[in-house]
Amino acid sequence: MTDQPRAIVVFDGDCGLCNGFVAWLIRHDRERRFLIAGSAGTVGRAALDAMGLAPAVAASTLVIATPDGPRLRSDAVASVASRLGWPWRIGGAIRWIPRTIRDGVYSAVAARRPRRPADDPACGTPPGELVTEWRARLATTEDVEAITAASPGRHRSP
What we know:
The protein is α+β, with helices and mostly antiparallel strands. It is built from 6 helices and 4 strands. A 4-stranded mixed sheet has the order 2-1-3-4, with helices on both faces. Helix 2 packs parallel to helix 6 (141-150). The longest helix is centred in the first third of the chain and has 13 residues, at 16-28. The protein is globular. It starts with 6 loop residues before the first strand and ends in an 8-residue tail after the last helix. InterPro entries: DCC1-like, DCC_oxidoreductase.
């Protein structure tokens, strides 16, 4: 790990696909490079605000809050993949595909993603075997402040 703060994955806790992605990430991010925050929570909203993004963006877009600014859609997927171990790291190669094409694919998947009702107890909750690690990865407002402080002038103050 470097002295840089860990990136924060801001996701829609009411989305089955988003929750599945976060569970997958926790299973494969053995170096614990990413923290997580639901977009509807205080920390998720603070991260979006610090990145200069409207809260509604996370309803259909994966956002990675980093000291270098936000990563959205396919850039977020590539950012995550490139920081994981083998074989997932090869997924970062999608950056070589023109953004309009890869974001088009991202948008097509997002438009068809499974939506669960907000009152579904499975939404925003980890699979049983990941509860402890999921909770250990929850970002705090201090984590958002660390990202903002690591790159003065690029973000809003939380």
